[in-house]
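Morning!

This is the sequence you dropped in the shared folder:
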Amino acid sequence: MNTNGNYIQYELNDPLTGSYFYFTNDLTRDLSKALANPTANRIIWNQGKGQFKFSCDEKTVTLRENTFCTLTALNYIKFPDNEQKVTAIAFNREFYCIRDHDHEVSCNGILFYGAQNFSVLKIPSVEVVPFEKLVDLFLKEFEENDSLHGEMLVSLLKILIIRLTRIGRNRIIGIQSDYQSIETIRKFNLLVEQNFRKYKQISEYAFMLNISSKKLSEIFRYAKLDPPLHTIHQRTILEAKRMLLFTLKSVNEISEELGFEDASHFSKLFKKLTGKSPSTFRIRKN
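The structure's back. Tokens below.
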């Protein structure tokens, strides 16, 4: 652990297992290391009173006081110069796989790998102190170096993710107490993340969830969320934007990779949701 006054940095990097965990309480001071592992998921917490702004998938994200953001290895992140101190945690699948352990934390589809692909959560005022105490437990554990050290860090990370997942669930207005419907939304988001290249119809996802298309649409309407079909389309176009911006693949290649039988259908959907053709979007952004 590296400490210097109020600045703290910790890194666990096991070359034998590939396990990676990183913590910093001053992200902008550690950008090169905090973003060094391309396979890591990240949790960012603005504990200060000022705003922290950065770019994620070409969208501007604003973290206000006591706001968290959860990001996956799939996100394209740019952090501009910013004097605001924020806390950040990075971890890869080898350290703790949120997909393999979904039954433990149930965060996929709410915090990670949802259709919008990143979440911004405001901590309720009554939860601020418990989160601060949890960070203190992380800091204390960084001073240990026994055989239980790694397991303890995983346990603390799980507690953090579970607490954030509860906040994320409560953010789904209209059905806060309907845990079955919340679970359906969560599973739908995860299924879209896993299958958007192959499946484009609500009925295909409703079948996997063992409910009717009508019921699935009703759940989203009661939760005051975008319709399921819109969610599928948005996830598809988000991936298209990434490929247009960060690869040299042609529009036809992207269309085929995203599961469209005809490139014109892809271009039509892209323009409907963005107002630009794929080619125009690539030129203007670059």
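Headline: Strands lie at 2-4, 7-13, 20-24, 41-46, 52-56, 59-63, 67-71, 77-78, 87-91, 119-122.

More detail when I'm at my desk.
O.
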